[in-house]
């Protein structure tokens, strides 16, 4: 699940099941936009194809290290939602209602759900006023309902509604369902769950090394794809983009008859893929064997989720030595990917090869309310605060937001 600036361009071909997986992994910086960007948005490059995606990853990465984002960063994301619950890659004019010409997609929607669900878990306990103002539940409930409404008959999802199921899209939706407390296996259409769709996209050990394909090609043939495999491991494990280290001992390829085995197979494939150089190689045409930084970061997350922190150390060390310059050139989603990789692999993202990734990400957008980790309260502490009549700092900030941008916006959040 790399930086997705080209994903929307591919959606038209995805609809007929012929998208090129490599193109979806393009992480080259886009040109600077010709119009002024919203102050709540992370990054300074053209957000047309990745605005919601990069904002969601930035908020997820901040949340994973205990940083509380600026209120306007949250409101920018919630304001991107359409009335039917879906998100597009970017809506420049949220006052204009979404129409049939707007290309909404499962990836942007599922990423937004994961980010807002994570914020809700923490803000509902520590910052109740913002949680109420931001309306996390209303946004994620509508988004999940829309995702379920566009589930394919094979149990999976494509990038665009109606598109053939692919590993990346199915996996990021699984992560969204898990993030809101649902069981992905129970999201069934025509008797098929998302795991059924993933297993159909898993290659056998003797023909593909246990990798996942992105989609079948026009002849129905599956081809191993590292980007899809990293996503597929997380999907098969039923987890989202923020992971806890797994406990499996090694990754041995066997018949992918279950999601758990398919995840192990995918991890075995990725382990072999990075064994020589510590990184994946770009599959883009004309890349001339250049390293694929984004997919290598995704590989670290997948290996850690499946086999624990030790399994991810080789590509992690390579990223620490080589990926910071890439992140500087690529922007907030790249910094977020590295933070999520460091988090998954048990290393400090504030000292990642000598670089404070968290500080660098925070500088990509509106200054967060807290730039350092905030200790989380447990439920007993939260209940005690209620009894004492405690008032969160978010309440005062919420009042200021109301005064600054108006009650009407907070009620609607631009969801047209």
From TrEMBL:
Residues 1-24 form the signal peptide. The keyword Membrane applies. Residues 377-387 have a biased composition (Acidic residues). The keyword Protease does not apply. Residues 364-387 are annotated as: Disordered. InterPro entries: Terpenoid_cyclase/PrenylTrfase. The chain crosses the membrane at residues 393-413. Keywords: Membrane, Signal, Transmembrane, Transmembrane helix. It comes from the Bacteria. Gene3D superfamilies: 1.50.10.20. This is Squalene cyclase C-terminal domain-containing protein.
């Amino acid at each position: 699940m790399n930086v997705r600036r080209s994903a929307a361009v591919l959606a038209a071909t995805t609809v007929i099941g012929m998208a090129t997986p490599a193109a979806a992994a393009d992480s080259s910086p886009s040109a600077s936009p010709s119009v002024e960007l919203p102050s709540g948005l992370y990054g300074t490059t053209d957000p047309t194809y990745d605005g919601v995606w990069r904002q969601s990853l930035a908020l997820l990465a901040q949340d994973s290290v205990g940083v509380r984002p600026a209120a306007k960063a949250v409101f920018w994301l919630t304001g991107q939602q359409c009335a039917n619950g879906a998100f597009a890659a970017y809506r420049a004019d949220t006052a204009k209602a979404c129409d049939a010409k707007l290309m909404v997609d499962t990836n942007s929607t599922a990423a937004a759900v994961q980010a807002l669900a994570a914020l809700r878990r923490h803000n509902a306990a520590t910052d109740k006023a913002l949680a109420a103002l931001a309306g996390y539940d209303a946004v994620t409930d509508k988004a999940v309902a829309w995702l379920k409404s566009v589930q394919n008959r094979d149990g999976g999802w494509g990038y665009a509604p109606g598109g053939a199921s692919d590993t990346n899209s199915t996996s990021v939706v699984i992560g969204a369902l898990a993030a809101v407390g649902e069981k992905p296996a129970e999201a069934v259409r025509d008797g098929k769950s998302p795991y059924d769709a993933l297993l159909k996209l898993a290659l056998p050990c003797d023909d593909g090394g246990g990798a996942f394909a992105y989609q079948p090609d026009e002849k129905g043939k599956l081809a191993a794809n590292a980007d899809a495999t990293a996503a597929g491991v997380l999907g098969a494990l039923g987890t989202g983009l923020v992971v806890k280290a797994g406990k499996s001992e090694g990754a041995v390829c066997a018949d992918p008859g279950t999601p758990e085995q398919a995840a192990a197979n995918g991890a075995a494939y990725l382990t072999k893929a990075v064994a020589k150089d510590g990184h994946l190689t770009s599959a883009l045409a004309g890349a001339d064997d250049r390293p694929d930084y984004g997919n290598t970061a995704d590989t670290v997350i997948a290996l850690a989720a499946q086999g624990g922190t030790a399994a991810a150390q080789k590509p992690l060390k390579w990223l620490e030595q080589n990926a910071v310059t890439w992140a500087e050139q690529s922007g907030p989603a790249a910094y977020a990917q590295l933070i999520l990789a460091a988090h998954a692999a048990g290393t400090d993202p504030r000292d990642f090869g000598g670089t404070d990734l968290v500080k660098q990400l925070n500088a990509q957008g509106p200054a967060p309310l807290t730039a350092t980790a905030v200790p989380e309260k447990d439920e007993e502490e939260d209940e005690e605060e209620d009894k004492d009549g405690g008032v969160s700092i978010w309440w005062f900030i919420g009042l200021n937001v109301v005064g600054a941008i108006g009650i009407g916006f907070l009620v609607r959040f631009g969801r047209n």
